């Protein structure tokens, strides 16, 4: 009997022990699982707040609160970091988005979508940088007021019959270290002043520019040059430069304009000689002077171009993928985006077809009147320098279209259209035909086009600059010279011709012989 009692007690104790272990295991399991469950709950709540299909509940700030809580319960909740990247993007917080998505890709290194999303954020940063330009002082020279001495000055970029002020201040491009990239610049002969009326945005802004001297004059004597910036007549920047310093290339500077945020100001660039007042060999170069959002420097430190390419590669995206995407952006006239995608494709050593190089050139010129150095000597992108005059034969004009029926692609020669006279260009209804011109110094030009209609029916010829109308002419069956006047700032431009057939049910063409450019006398700025 005692033995049975002992066995019963032992069995009871074992059961108690098992139950205790089960209970302990349950508690331990709850401790391990509960944080994940709570984290998942807040993750779901954060995702719901980011569902932009329901604008009533869409709230990126609330989403970030939920996602922060989710990470407090489970610091390895990778998807919470991914959603945080999306929330920060919605707020325009690029640094937060990058940090969140980088953490996500660290936790999920094989997630192709994570690398793609991170690359897209870097692309958005790059686009934001380009959009932060409040005023480009080279392009705005025609709207500025130039003050100089009464006497004329003789420089290699001005003719004797040009206005006095044009000899002192001109828009051009300079190729200097470290990039040698034909940077847009203002050349100012001393002493001279160029003043802009600018309405600053409410956000803090800066003026940034490069300082140098025209490289063609580096070996000439002089007593230094003085760069000065004034706001409303008050000097806020002053620095001297000698020839040795100038020979090193561009010296970048920034000037804070924050005290005048939200106000209209007179911003003046001043070029004066050194203490000996010797102006020989002194043409001051202001490289790419721009008024930009002060946040631009912090965004540039993120190096979006470099890291976008790195993430595209990690996602398995090839150079050809980016080039094709650039083609799609180009077709939608998203020129800025197309230019960046083509540039990425080049960096990744993609193989460009001639038609893609042609589209890249169009996109670059339409974005900021520049042309990538790699395209400067490309046969796919013939560029004509405009100084005094130039004539472009029709056989050198290029199609800006793709037509499978006629087997024509972007950048093909105009004479590649099956015409009755291959010695001239035939511009049919599917145009336009374009030419690239490089204007070294801002001026007004007379454009003359020799053209006729191929049949007796009515048709019109449109002359455009960068796809903006300059003039419209009615064609006849006989050769005629059609003339228009256009002002061209320094940099690269697209001159294009388009044809409109007015008679319904009748096929017709414009036949082009040549386009001629002649710089106007006394063209000024």
Describe it.
The protein is α+β, with helices and mostly antiparallel strands and 525 residues long. The protein is built from twelve helices and 22 strands.
Unreliable residue stretches? none
C-alpha Rg, in Å? 32 Å
Mean pLDDT: 85
| Global outline | globular
Secondary structure layout plus pairing:
Blueprint: H1 2-49, H2 60-73, H3 78-91, H4 94-107, H5 112-131, E1 133-136, E2 145-148, H6 164-168, E3 169-174, E4 183-189, E5 192-199, E6 205-213, E7 225-231, E8 234-241, H7 243-246, E9 251-256, E10 264-273, E11 283-293, H8 296-300, H9 304-314, H10 319-331, H11 335-347, H12 354-368, E12 383-386, E13 389-393, E14 398-399, E15 425-427, E16 433-439, E17 443-453, E18 459-465, E19 468-474, E20 480-488, E21 491-501, E22 510-519
Parallel strand pairs: 12-16
Antiparallel strand pairs: 1-11, 2-5, 3-4, 4-11, 5-10, 6-9, 6-11, 7-8, 7-10, 13-22, 14-16, 15-22, 16-21, 17-20, 17-22, 18-19, 18-21
Fill in the keyword field for this structure:
about 525 residues, alpha+beta, 6-stranded antiparallel β-sheet, 6-stranded mixed β-sheet, 12 helices, about 35% helix
Task: Give a brief description.
The chain starts with a helix and ends in a 6-residue tail after the last strand. The longest helix has 48 residues, at 2-49. With 525 residues, it is of the alpha+beta class.
């Amino acid at each position: 009997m005692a033995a049975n009692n002992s066995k019963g007690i032992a069995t009871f104790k074992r059961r108690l022990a098992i139950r205790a272990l089960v209970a302990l295991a349950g508690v331990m399991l709850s401790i391990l699982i509960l944080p994940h469950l709570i984290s998942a709950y807040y993750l779901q709540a954060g995702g719901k707040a980011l569902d932009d299909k329901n604008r009533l509940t869409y709230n990126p700030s609330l989403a970030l609160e939920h996602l922060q809580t989710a990470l407090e319960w489970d610091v390895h909740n990778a998807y919470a970091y991914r959603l945080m990247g999306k929330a920060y993007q919605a707020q325009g917080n690029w640094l937060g988005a990058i940090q969140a998505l980088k953490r996500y890709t660290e936790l999920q290194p094989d997630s192709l979508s994570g690398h793609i999303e991170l690359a897209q954020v870097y692309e958005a940063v790059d686009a934001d940088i380009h959009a932060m330009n409040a005023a480009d002082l080279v392009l705005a020279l025609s709207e500025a007021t130039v003050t100089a001495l009464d006497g004329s000055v003789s420089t290699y970029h001005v003719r004797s019959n040009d206005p006095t002020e044009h000899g002192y201040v001109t828009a051009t491009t300079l190729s200097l270290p470290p990039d040698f990239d034909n940077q847009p610049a203002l050349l100012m002969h001393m002493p001279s002043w160029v003043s802009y009326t600018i309405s600053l945005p409410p956000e803090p802004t800066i003026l940034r520019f490069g300082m140098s001297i025209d490289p063609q004059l580096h070996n000439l004597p002089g007593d230094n040059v003085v760069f000065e910036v004034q706001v409303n007549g008050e000097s806020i920047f002053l620095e001297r430069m000698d020839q040795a310093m100038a020979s090193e290339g561009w010296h970048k500077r920034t000037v804070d304009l924050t005290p005048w945020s939200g106000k209209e100001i007179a911003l003046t660039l001043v070029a004066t000689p050194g203490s000996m007042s010797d102006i020989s060999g002194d043409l001051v170069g202001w490289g790419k002077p721009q008024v930009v959002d002060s946040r631009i420097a912090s965004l540039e430190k993120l190096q979006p171009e470099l890291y976008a390419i790195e993430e595209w590669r990690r996602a398995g995206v090839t150079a050809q993928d980016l080039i094709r995407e650039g083609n799609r952006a180009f077709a939608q006239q998203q020129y800025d985006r197309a230019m960046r995608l083509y540039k990425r494709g080049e960096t990744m050593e993609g193989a460009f077809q001639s038609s893609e190089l042609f589209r890249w050139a169009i996109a670059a010129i339409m974005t900021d009147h520049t042309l990538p150095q790699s395209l400067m000597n490309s046969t796919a992108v013939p560029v004509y320098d405009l100084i005094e005059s130039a004539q472009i034969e029709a056989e050198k004009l290029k199609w800006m279209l793709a037509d499978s029926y006629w087997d024509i692609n972007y950048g093909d020669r105009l004479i590649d259209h099956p015409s009755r006279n291959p010695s001239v260009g035939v511009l049919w209804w599917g145009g336009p035909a374009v030419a690239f011109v490089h204007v070294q110094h801002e001026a007004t030009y007379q454009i003359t086009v020799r053209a006729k209609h191929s049949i007796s029916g009515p048709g019109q010829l449109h002359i455009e600059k960068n796809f903006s109308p300059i003039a419209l002419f009615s064609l006849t069956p006989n050769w005629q010279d059609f003339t228009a006047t256009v002002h061209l700032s320094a940099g690269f431009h697209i001159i294009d011709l388009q044809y409109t057939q007015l008679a319904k049910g009748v096929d017709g063409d414009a036949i082009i012989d040549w386009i001629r450019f002649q710089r106007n006398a006394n063209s000024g700025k």
